[in-house]
Model the fold of this input.
Amino acid sequence: MKDKRKANYTGTGALSLLTLCISIFTSCTKTDYLDVEAANRPALTAKISFVNARPVNQGINFYTYTTQVTATPVLINKATPYMETQFGLVQINIAAAASTSYLASRVFGGSAEFTSSGGPNGPIAGYYHTVFALKAKALNFSVDSIMLFYDDLSAPPAGNAKFRFVNIATASGAVDVFFNGSSVFTNVTYGSAGGAVLSGAGLNAFSIAPFKTIPAGRGSLVIRTSPGNAVQIKLNSTEWDEFTFAEGKIYTIFINGDINASVGAAALVHN
Done:
């Protein structure tokens, strides 16, 4: 660094003093240890889409700790856009519209990164997530609960879409999922996602609720109770005899409700 100030000293002592001053000035103006370029800074938030999958015709709000994160109540079978939220150790709560009494609370995390032990993992900084409000299997599905999945939003190959399937239809048992006659997911039990890897070498954040690549197009989406009886599923009161997977799009499809009476279903688009 060139010092443009005029020196008023002469001699060896003055030169040493000038050198020392330059060294101090240069050191004090260096910022590489004080700051990091913005592009290289670690993400400070996680992104979450909140879904009201409770089989109850009631809007709900979502909270992180005591902070309401949804501006308006989320209606049944609807989802919010991705929202920036806290990562790591987070308590997520749900409450009915215009109520401050929580229907359910759950603490996720303890780690800012995915781990395979230590209880439920929390939102990860820089990752996308989906949080479901649902009815828990305990006490005959009379208890509300909350479930978190990590979202792999990498683009599908050209000519394809991606989707995952989540079974939260009460008392459903296991179900199989077919599209245009081809099996996509098998033996999906209540409270889980199709194709989930929950332990072993294949376990990772995205394996808990994986997306499967599927050729884009229109066709019949069928869900059957294992080992074979057809289950009627509906979206906006229309059977899914014709469902379109658009090229490049990423979907989550879930069923909820009482499978012995009527089964609700919804398709969420992530991009």
User: Anything to note?
Assistant: The radius of gyration is 26 Å. The mean pLDDT is 80. The first strand starts at residue 46 and ends at 52.
